[in-house]
Every structure is written in structure tokens, then in C-alpha cells.
Design brief:
Blueprint lengths: L9 H6 L3 H28 L29 H8 L4 H16 L5 E2 L9 E9 L2 E8 H5 L10 E8 L2 E4 L6 E2 L2 H11 L15 H4 L2 H9 L3 H4 L2 E8 L5 H14 L4 H12 L4 E8 L10
Antiparallel strand pairs: 1-2, 2-3, 3-4, 4-5, 4-6, 7-8
Bound molecules: zinc ion (2 copies).
One zinc ion binds next to loops.
């Protein structure tokens, strides 16, 4: 891929920045993201696009906007126009994952590498209401398909509506944007790490450590608790089985604690030595589509 940012030494540039400045920049970004994410979420509740301020079914053919992707009545021709309008991979992906997460966190995005064939750099499926998109990027896409019209660096998207494919993977060979190239180069030079934040999908369940899960589980947010449940396997020492069962039931009724939290409490307070294993099971997660 031709990348105009290749000649910039980002490491050197970053070394010249004060660490305080970088920290400030990161903090500002986090605040901005939070503000924008809430803006998208609130807008969607009212059927309004946060980016252009228009209703979701509004189309100005000369000004492609991200919300076209969730426009219930848009024509395929215009969707393809949007895909080729220079938004690029990261911005399209960012928009759709934020939209999906605003509906329900994590379970609408399969960003795990499970089932991907080894040629894939990445393949992710995103769902929002009646829509579903799959981004697919193989090494051969990144290199360009030589000897064809698509000999440039590109990625593919499949789009479904109500389970029916409306854009096939092969319909578009979408070029990367300048913004994509800048980000790719900065990641290659190791000056930037990707933290999914509001883009996070099912992959988060394999990365979270146990304490973080517990924190998520006890968050007083009914939306989150519907996203996944835990299954806990409990082994209670024989001599205290009756005692533990009684106390366990009592705490279950009295508190809104999860099983692991109750066990931790019982172990700490009474030294029972109960052993447990917890598995996190997402509720109704999206199933990934693969490009063959
Ligand atoms: Zn818009
Ligand atoms: Zn391709």
C-alpha cells in the first residue's frame, strides 16, 4: 500500500512531546468520546443523526452521511456511493460499532478472531436493529488483487437487512482513507495502541479479568445486566454444606449480589474454603458472517 505517512518518524515526534501533554490529550479524547457516544445514543432514540442533525430517513444525495447505513428506506446505489465517499475503514467501523453499542453493549459486535481463516487480518460482524454489516480484510485485499481493477489496497463490506444480503462482499472494493493510513502507520511504528472503548464487542469477554467482570456485573444498570449472565460452578466442602446453603440462600434474597460475590463474602467471613469457577455467557450474541 502506498502510504504518504511512511516517511514520518512518529517515534521521534512523540519523544519531543511532554508526557503531561500526551496525558492531557488522552484525557480530552476520552471526554470527547463520552460526549459523542451519548450524543449518538440520545439522537438515535429520537430518530435523529448526531452527525448531520437530520432525521435518519433524510438523504441529501450530494452529501453522503454515515446515517445512510441505518436509513430504513435508502437505495443500494446510494449506500455504495456512501461507502466510496472517502470515509474509510476506521470511521465506518467506528460509527457502526458505536451505533450497535448504544443499543446494547458488546453483544451486537463479534470482533473475536474465532472462525476467521488465517488469511484474514480482521473480520467483524456488527448488528443494529434490522441491519447487519460484516467488515472483511484479508492480506490479499490489503495488498490489492493484482491483475484486476482492484489492484489497490482495499477492504470489503457485506450488508444485510432483515437477514437478506443487500450488499455482497464482492460488490465493493473500498479504498482506505488518509485517516486510515495515518492510523495504520502510527500503529506500525508502535506509537499508538488500539483500545476499543466504545467500539468493544464480544472479544472483551475474553480479555476482561475476573475483578473487572465483577464490577460490570454489579453496576446498577439494568441494560448491562441483560447483556450477559454468569454461570458459576460451586464446590462446597462436605462438612459445611448445609450451613453454606442456608447462608447462600439468605444472602441471595437479602442482597442483589452475584453468586461469586456471595461466595467471596462467605469465604472471607467464615473461612469455608468454597471453590468456584465462573463462566461469562453473553445473552443473545451476534453470529459472525464470514467471507468465503
Ligand atoms: Zn447524518
Ligand atoms: Zn478484495
Amino acid at each position: 500500500m502506498y502510504n504518504q505517512y511512511k516517511n514520518i518518524n512518529f517515534k521521534e515526534l512523540c519523544n519531543e512531546l511532554e508526557s503531561e501533554f500526551i496525558q492531557k490529550m488522552n484525557e480530552t479524547q476520552i471526554k470527547e468520546d463520552e460526549h459523542d457516544f451519548n450524543g449518538i445514543k440520545e439522537g438515535l432514540k429520537k430518530g435523529i443523526c448526531y452527525i448531520c442533525g437530520e432525521p435518519l430517513d433524510y438523504v441529501d444525495e450530494n452529501n453522503p452521511c454515515f446515517h445512510w447505513l441505518i436509513n430504513p428506506i435508502i437505495k443500494k446505489k446510494l449506500l455504495i456511493k456512501l461507502l466510496y465517499s472517502g470515509k474509510g475503514l476506521l470511521r465506518l467501523y467506528g460509527y457502526l460499532t458505536w451505533v450497535a453499542n448504544s443499543d446494547k453493549p458488546f453483544v451486537n459486535i463479534d470482533d473475536t478472531s474465532e472462525g476467521n481463516d488465517c488469511n484474514k487480518i480482521f473480520e467483524t460482524t456488527i448488528r443494529y436493529k434490522e441491519f447487519e454489516w460484516t467488515f472483511s480484510l484479508a492480506k490479499t485485499d490489503f495488498e490489492g488483487h493484482s491483475g484486476t481493477n482492484s489492484d489497490y489496497s482495499h477492504f470489503h463490506i457485506q450488508m444485510k437487512k432483515n437477514g437478506k444480503v443487500i450488499i455482497k462482499f464482492n460488490d465493493c472494493h473500498i479504498p482506505f482513507s488518509d485517516h486510515d493510513k495515518l492510523m495504520i502507520e502510527m500503529m506500525n511504528q508502535d506509537v499508538m495502541t488500539y483500545i476499543p472503548s466504545y467500539e468493544a464487542g464480544l472479544n472483551i469477554f475474553s480479555e476482561l479479568d475476573y475483578d473487572e467482570v465483577l464490577q460490570l456485573m454489579t453496576r446498577p444498570d439494568s441494560e448491562n445486566s441483560a447483556v450477559f449472565r454468569t454461570q458459576t460452578l460451586i464446590i462446597i466442602p462436605k462438612h459445611c454444606k448445609k450451613e453454606v446453603s442456608a447462608k447462600f440462600q439468605e444472602l441471595q434474597q437479602k442482597t442483589n449480589w452475584t453468586a461469586p460475590k456471595i461466595i467471596e463474602y462467605l469465604n472471607k467471613e467464615f473461612g469455608y474454603g468454597i471453590i468456584y469457577m465462573t463462566q461469562i455467557i453473553p445473552t443473545n450474541p451476534i453470529t459472525k458472517s464470514h467471507r468465503k
